[in-house]
Amino acid sequence: MVNWQGVMPAVTTKFTAKDTLDLAMFKTNIRAQLEAGVHGIIMGGTLGEASTLTDEEKQILLKETVDMVAGDVPVIINIAEQTTKAAVKAAAVAEKNGASGLMMLPPMRYKADDYETITYFTEVAKSTALPIMVYNNPVDYKVEVTLDMFEELLSQPNIQAVKESTRDISNVTRIKNRFADRLKILCGVDTLALESLLMGADGWVAGLVDAFPAETVAIYELQKAGKIKEAINIYRWFLPLLELDINSKLVQNIKLAEVATGIGTEYVRAPRLPLTGQERKQVLQIITTALQNRPTLPNYQNLSTI
User: With bands split at pLDDT 50, 70 and 90, how would you rate the model's confidence at 277?
Assistant: First the structure.
């Protein structure tokens, strides 16, 4: 069972200079996430550079994470496959290796129509006992899962949540009006996170949390406790950093931020390459400015005492 709420980092994959998995630094980052109070771990997404990982590497990362969190928070793995057959297999492997749930994109490469998309999600849902969060990102992946499509998909009890990345903030209200709590909503766009939470989203699949876990969780916990002004103050400081997530170089950007906060490395897997030149200088300037003005956080994990 997954309680689809709170902050769930879409974690990056750490590599060494020799392009092998850096499990030591990976665990350092996961530990920082857990200490900050995140509510789940999501792996194998864009930030995890999953399209460049081998099946063996994905399984190693999942097993290591499951062992490390020891049931304290759910471990969700992303499925982004080209065929229904491959997606069903990936779900089975994830279940075998201890995943708590799945995040699923529509079929990759082929632009499925509504019927094909519904059938794809349904077949995978029927094949597994794991709960599923549908990743709805028509901006980047060109397939929108509409509310009418969700009406059909929710006949499958293990389709339980949506990573809402349409960039339409009013969609949170539309989903709540139509499905109430049957379909949990996790914002998938860092720059719309607080707005989405205030409109009723249940959680936040976050990116810059990889470098700034405490600040991210603090925003969630403060708004949940009704301390909106305090949440807004941190969010305003955070926004220039959050904008690094809505960029084609989001992986490189966030890994640079992880280096700056001591919980990551800059290594990416080709064809991605580390940032260079003016682009690198601009990102580092944003990170440096943020660190120079980093807010003092309240005791957000014990708000009842504040």
Answer: very high
